[in-house]
Amino acid sequence: MSTTISSRIATLRRLHSETMSSWSGCVDTAGIADCGERHDAAREERAQDDADAAGGHWDRAIEAVEAGDIGTARQELEWARSLAAEWGDSSIETQALRLLDEDDEEEEDGDDDPEDEGVDADDCCVMVTVETMPDCHRSSHRAAGNWGTYPANGAERTEMTREDAQEIVDADEDGYDHIVEVKS
Known about the structure:
The chain is mainly alpha-helical. The chain has two domains: 3-109, no CATH class; 121-183, no CATH class. It has six helices and five strands; from the N terminus they run αββαααβαβαβ. The chain has helices spanning 3-30, 41-66, 70-86, 91-109, 135-144, 162-171; strands at 32-33, 38-39, 127-132, 156-161, 178-183. The strands form two sheets. Strands 4-3-5 form a three-stranded antiparallel β-sheet. The longest helix is centred in the first third of the chain and has 28 residues, at 3-30. The chain is globular, with a radius of gyration of 17 Å.
């Protein structure tokens, strides 16, 4: 295993640890309702179930990277990001996906095929749902230190090709815009 791959896996493991710590805080506070006046056990249980599912997606993503299957790793992280976004913050998953994109870019840089422009033909046909944060809401979310939960946070969801969605995600300096669902 090359040093670059080893360091990427180490980075993914660190990000996995960070996101699970974030999930722990989410689960701890998910049941608090009405400014602490009551406890919503069902919501807390949903948060724990989603945290467990996200952890499983991360584990499978890391295993896929170790096996050299970046496509599977990317899909697992997209699912983890979707779960995290539902609870308010998917920035760590977005970082991990960008790390995988760096892997792809490095492989493409070594490819001498002049007809290959780094675009997966399937990206032009696969439809996805992308969640974006309008500019008018971004400053208040930055000030609050979190992105809230769709739809109450003011985010918008749109269906488009994966290729177009990825351009939007890559251009987002805040790391909020993300693919929520991949339509097969």
